[in-house]
Every structure is written in structure tokens, then in C-alpha cells.
Amino acid sequence: MKYHSEIVKRRSFAIISHPDAGKTTLTEKLLLFGGAIQTAGAVKSNKIKKHATSDFMEIERQRGISVATSVMTFEYQGILINLLDTPGHKDFAEDTYRTLTAVDSVILVIDSVNGVEEQTRRLMEVCRMRDTPVIVFVNKMDRDGKNRFDLIEEIEKELSIQLHPLTWPINSGKDFKGVYDLHNKNLRLFTAHTKAEDGVLQLEDLSDPVLDDKLGARDAAVLREDVELVDGVHGELNVEDYLAGKVAPVFFGSAVNNFGVKEMLDTFIRIAPIPRSRETTKRKVDVEEDKFSGFIFKIHANLDPKHRDRIAFLRVCSGRFERNKYFHHVRLDKDVRFSNPYSFLARSKDVIEEAYPGDVVGLFDTGNFKIGDTLTEGEEFYFTGIPSFSPEIFKEVLNKDPMKTKQLEKGLLQLTDEGVAQLFTQFGGNKKIIGCVGELQFEVIQYRLLQEYGASVEFRAQPYYKACWITSDDPKKLQDFIRFKSSNIAEDKDGHLVYLAQSEWFLNTERTNNPDIEFHFTSEIHKDMI
User: Fold this and answer.
1) How far apart are CA 67 and CA 408, in angstroms?
2) Structural Rg of the chain based on CA atoms
3) Helix or strand (DSSP H, E) at 151
4) 496 touches 508 (CB < 8 A)
5) Could you tell me if 421 and 434 are in contact, meaning their C-beta atoms sit under 8 angstroms apart?
6) Average pLDDT over residues 110-123
7) Mind listing the pLDDT tens digit for each residue in 377-408?
8) Which among 467, 397, 398 is positioned nearest to 437, based on CA atoms?
């Protein structure tokens, strides 16, 4: 219980959404409230030279999308918040998935115009697998979108989660007049491009005639009817149900106008979970334990192009992380210490002296870390549930400049260490194949190889359907299989054998013909270490 006071004042969460739902804009507004930044960047506008604080790779600034997961730490009303802004694009689902292993709760942004989109469904499936508590923010209420009741019904049906509105919108689009806060019984009036806090109206109850003055008789009557209905159906929020991932509180607003965001943030710090205990390969690690433990969930190379640095992102799970103290690197079985651990505000880094459960710390890495690595004060275990998926698209790497072979090798290793793509080398040969979840990954890799390593490459599509890690208790059977299928066998960069199947039919045939060989579709990143 030594660090109890530090643990209870920390919250760590990720913002997730379909691309373009307004995730990065919402991140900016939360940072404004925390006083972490003074002006929000325009995410898309090319006319304005500021960019969203959380988008720090050149390709992100050009495309107006988040590619990497950014980590930002800020303080609000005495609570220390670790916010992870994740890539929304489906091609980066794996990075997002791993980020969700490092947070305790999630804010899901939904675009009121488009409703539930494909990527939102995939992300919610991940949250449900882990029973992650979710708060929903329905964005872009100042645009003509779907009817509020239809939208709630759609979200509940599509995402299989029960919603509980905590604010309620008055109209939408050009008639959007504001939101009524069901918990605090006040009205926040909306005027585009003004400060949201200017328009708060405290009401004793909804029969107050002030409502008719401010909204007009028709809208006031609709709001009274809506609120009666919503209160009748939902009543008070059961915080335990939210923490168990069964109920999601819902807020309505417009992130770009900073409207409806404060209500959500105030509720978030009131109800969001504090850092939780976590499972490992040996036992459950209690968050209140005195001894330090944590795991690496992300690696980012070349955060600063001038210094060729690699940062490993560590989630602290128990105890206290201290600068310059030796900790045990379980996989390498050696002790390591860090003289410059960082906390983050997107691109700017501050050296910290200590960190507690829930915090995300950036560690300067010279190549010691892989995703899933665990640091402890001597105990041997790994945190579980950090998978690596089978890629869906495969391309051979063609070097366009043989003089830069060394740079290419280094670049491929470092970029695939980040976990955005997987590198396979043909068994017994040197053909390099990159496997990704989506097409955009290849564009990012090609761009970064050139910009950061000076290596120019092309990609040639390969006719593979899936990569399966193969294992067997019978070494001879495995050797025979490798010999017969050598053109379809590769090694991942950790030296594990992988079967590259041309189609579902080929894969099923091989599984039937080789009952002694196991085909794995995910490689839990630590499975080989135990």
C-alpha cells in the first residue's frame, strides 16, 4: 500500500475511433483543458501551418491522419492523466490493439453524421474481449447528422453495448442549440466558435420558464419530453456496470468547437478506473505491490530524426519506477538502468525521476527491447495478452540501391521492431518479405526507409493468404514438412518458423495432412520466452 496515494490520482486511457471521426481534434481539446497546450492545431487545413500536437511523423502531417500511437501526459483537477491517441486507420489496427493492453479505459469517438463505421466495430470487439470500460463521445453535433434516438439505437445494436446518456443534445446541424447535462441538471448553450464555458445555465428543474426563453417553446417542449423518456429508461448511472464494461456513458458535443468536451472530462475523472492489477504467466500482479513491474507495449524508432533514437514505451503496472535504478530485463536475463526516462507531451519529452502504476514512460532503447518485454525487480514472469497477428498482405522487398543494403537491413529490422509490420526471410535464402495488415503500412514503410535510412525500395506483391507459426513435438515431422514445403517456409525475425499459405484451401489441406504439426494464427509475443 506504499504508493496508494499515487495510484488513486492516475488515470490512463486511449481515444479510439474510425478515421476522421474527430479523435485527434478531441485529444487537442483535452490537452487544452489540462493546460498542456495553448492553441489547438488544425489537423487537416493545409493553409494553417500548425499541426495537431499529437501527429508527429511527417507522413501524418501530410495525410492528416494519425499513424503512430502518441502518448501524452497532463494534469487536470489534481488527477494525472495518461492519454494515448491511437491510429484510427484500419491498416494500423494491430498497433491500436496493443495500445489497448496498456490502458485502463477507453473513450470511443463516434461521428454523428456517419454513425457506427467499420473500424469502430473492430475496436469495440477488442474492448469487449478485455471488458475495458468505455465512454462514448458523439462528435460533430453541429453538422446535420442522424436522429439522436436512432443514433443511440444504432450504436447499441452495432457495438453490442448498453448506452447511458449523461448529456442530451438539443437539435443538430445548423439548429444545434446545445446540450442538457442530465447529471448536473444544467444547460450548456451552443454558439459556434465561442468559448463553451460562456453559456452554462443552472436549472432547478426543466419546468423553469428560462428554458422557453433560451430555446424557444418548441425546442424546450421537445427537450422536456426527451429527458423524461431518457430518465425513465436509464435513471442514475451505475458506476460498477460502467467499470465492468457493461454500460457506456454517452456524451454529445462538437470537438472542433470544444463543446460538450468538459462535461465528458469532468465525468471521466470522477468515474474512470484507477490503474488495475494484471495477469502474468506466473501469477496476478497486484497494482498495490511495492515491487516494480511493467511491460513494453510499443517501440518507436527515430522519434527525433536528428538523433536516430528508439523509444520503448513502458506501462508501469506495480511499484515505483526510478531513474538510474537497475531493473531486471526478464527475456535477456540482465539488469538494465535508464538515465533519461521520459514522460511525453506528443513530441516534447521531459526527463522524469519516478513513475507509478498507470504511467507510461519512454525509455531510450539501443535495441534491447521487443514488444511484450517485461521489467521487474528480479522476479521472472511476463505480462500476458499482447499478441501479434497473422498479416493479410505480403510483399517482397526489392532494393533499388545496392549501395544502401546495410541501411536497408537496419531500417527493416528497426521498423518491424515497432510492431507495425512483420518481416519474414525465406527459409535457406535471403528473400525478404514484409507482411502487413493493410496497404497503407507499405506506403509508410517505404516513406520511412527513404527519409530515415536513405534506403530506396519497391515492393512486389506475393501470392500468400496467411502466415502461420508452426511448431511440433516431433522434430522429425517438422523437418520433413520444412523440406517438402521449403518454398513456402520462412523465418520471422526472431528465428521462428512460419508457413506461408497460398490460400485457405492449401492451409486446410496441410493441416489435415500434418496432424502432428500445429499451425498458430497469432504468436503471443512472449510465447517463445517462457
Assistant:
1) 21
2) 25
3) helix 148-159
4) no
5) yes
6) 80
7) 988 888 887 666 677 789 998 988 888 888 88
8) 467
